Amino acid sequence: MTETAPRPTLEAVAARAGVSRATVSRVVNGGDGVREPLVERVRRAVEELGYVPNQAARSLVTRRHDAVAVVIAEPETRVFADPFFALQLRGISKELTAHDNQLVLLLTEGRDDHARVARYLAGGHVDGALVFSLHLDDPLPGLIQGAGVPTVFGGRPGWSDGTRDVVHVDSDNRGGAREAVRHLVDLGRRRVAHITGPLDQTSAADRLQGFLDVMGDTDQRLVAEGDFTPGGGERAMRELLDRSPDLDAVFAANDLSAAGALRVLRARGRRVPEDVAVVGFDDMLPVAEQTDPPLTTVRQDIEEMGRIMARLLLHGRHDPAASGPGTVLPTTLIRRASA
Questions:
Q1: Could you tell me which residues are beta bridge partners of residue 280?
Q2: Which helix (H) or strand (E) holds 334?
Q3: Are 247 and 191 in contact (CB under 8 A)?
Q4: CA gap 96, 87 in Å, rounded
Q5: Distance in angstroms (rounded) separating the CA atoms of residues 49 and 24
Q6: What is the pLDDT of residues 206-227, one digit of tens each?
Q7: How big, in percent rounded to 5, are the helix, strand and coil portions of the chain?
């Protein structure tokens, strides 16, 4: 075994800098009232000795933990299988890392986990929470509000507990869906079907509404509910073909659903885009560029959504991206070979 050298202490830094322990503490913890020449001496001594502040002691002084909880209201099997969550976590992580904050990931497998998450947040372990993938009947918004921690939500609020006027970041789901369906109509398609996401999530409900904005009182046989997964897209596509074999286009509520739909169309002998044009939503490159054929889709900047959520939590309404409680990012139609 090798012996490790003792960690430098505040007292050692104070001795090296020729100042009091209290002065070192104020400099290290970001306090005011220390003259600039003394600040420079302390910083030089910290660097020379390799001093690392004790985070627990620092938290007692600053009442900050430099840690942020990311709460995803989905089971881990969904989170680790869907590139959407990886992209959003990447954006959040980049922003937190740039401000020397740690990310604490909390997943909810079922109802029992909601109380656990609320207790953790109320326990003072983190400085705030970023929460996304909520469902309409989810108790988490109310529980988190009761925990009393600053919170930013991903997605338009639509919950039944009244906590609607909250800081949130979303994409223009309805407008993006309208653009996707107009593109299909402009291609001359007349029997346009829609594979929805889970309709207890506002993103899926908004995309359905955008579809209806263009198609009006469409034949209900042309709408099938999916669940944002490839398997859900396959099931919904089979339903649509069985009910409406003459359909000539499909707008899927996300890229994973579109990938599932493409597999079923190929298995049923339908050529894409000659017989059936397909458009997705998200533009997740690991999915959209690798489907056969490559997928026309609506791009939302998922990583940027994560960055802005973290930025709003760290800096509040002073962030230039903030516009009232809700920040809505634009979407863009990306044309590839499927439509």
A1: 297
A2: strand 332-334
A3: yes
A4: 14
A5: 13
A6: 999 999 999 998 889 999 999 9
A7: 45, 15, 35
